[in-house]
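Notebook entry, structure prediction.
Reason for the run: the old model in the group folder had no record of what sequence produced it. Starting over properly, with the input documented here first.
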Amino acid sequence: MLRYFPENNITYAHRKRDYLIAAFTFVCVAISLNIDANGSIEKQNFMGVTAWVFLIGLLFGENKDVRMQVAIAVAFATVGEHFASIYMGGYIYRLENVPAYVPPGHGMVYLTAIALARSGLFLRHARKIAIFVVLVCGTWSIWGISGYPEQGDAVGAILFCVFLVYLFKGRSPMVYLAAFFITTWLELIGTAAGTWKWVELEPIFGLPQGNPPSGVAAWYCLVDAAAIGGASPLLNWIKKSSAWISTKSRKEISQETTGNE
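New structure, fully documented this time:
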């Protein structure tokens, strides 16, 4: 079950960059969501521009594979936001839109999950962190369906089960563990500040869901699967397309030169 977890008893290097990315994103999430709690659409747009600048700046230090994964994650998550929030109404933002800072914000969140996943801290203590996450999220999920909270959370319990499958069977368990921390952080702050609210009954099956659902990190497992699965084929396609365009350009130049002679 733990075949994709890092090996024990190995010294892993600590890179300051990984921790700086994580710290920067955690702070930005807290500040931006509290600012947006009573901000205007103009303020949202300004935060959107700022978030894109931050994301692009952070990606300068990453390789092309990570950049492509983040790009796919942003596209996939943005489509998901419009479907789940605007179309389905599973959760509703304060101004009933998808704020401009949300797409680049997803990129920063996903990059943070990658950075923490490869950090020396997470690699060295992978199993301990996994136990902690499972216990915390599991307790949260059980509480949600216990009948004690005012708003039940059957959806959270289902998502927690999905999260467990990804964690122990998926190929990026460290990313999933890291995603739990950053997604839980932003969901608790966002819902507490009133930036968005999860509806009491999810719109498809009418199941009760918490505000936020306990297993919400499972959605980022899906985002990661799309990002990793799509990055290599897309990069190969771009490489082949560039090579074809370059070859065609050289042939055209050669033909023009021959014709002139």
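Summary: The CA atoms of residues 145 and 187 lie 19 Å apart.
The old model has been moved to the deprecated folder.
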